[in-house]
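#structure-requests
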Amino acid sequence: MTRAHHWHTGTLIKRYKRFLADVRLDTGETVTAHVPNTGAMLSTRTPGSPVALSWHDNPARKYPWTLELVQADGCWVGVNTAKTNGLVAQAIAQGRIAPLRGYPDLRREVPLGAHSRIDIALEKPGEFCFIEVKNATWRVGSQARFPDAVTERGTRHLHALIQARREGHRAVIFFLVNRGDCTSLAPAADVDPVYAQTLADAVDAGVEALAYRVRNDLNGARVDRRIPVRLPR
């Protein structure tokens, strides 16, 4: 369990300029928070939604408040993508991701190819495993969808994983579904058809697609269980 420290609850007034949100705290104070999420945040940006913020006592920060959780359909959703890789790395290190057990060496932010860095690299004698992690928060019905906005960077990462697989390495695209109410994940071809097709091509090339969901509450977050990745065929 990743613990939360000094989180404050309130109500979302609005998200704007991509990285800012106005929030009315339960104390009655209105604050502006940093939003560490580059996506559209579909289903997690509705005014009036309950939210949780962290506060950072750092004089170098223009906005000491950070948006951490948004409640959507009664479920706490983790929207701070800066924490995604750490959650996955911790779960791997603790042996809670069954397909990724057995690697004694774990490194983060590893160069892969000429123009990419990969989120996590695992190593054991004779084998490398490269893992790119994506934070999925958008839900349609009971299904998580990714991406919720066009992601050229995400497509580049898939090409890097395809190249790693061609070079004989294990390669994984890992979708962290940062909410506990989804039963599967699928690419959002209506939002980014290029990404959806590249994901299908990557799987055909031997890249493994894994999706695990997260249980969030005001005490912290825990990677919960694996859910299937549904690729249109």
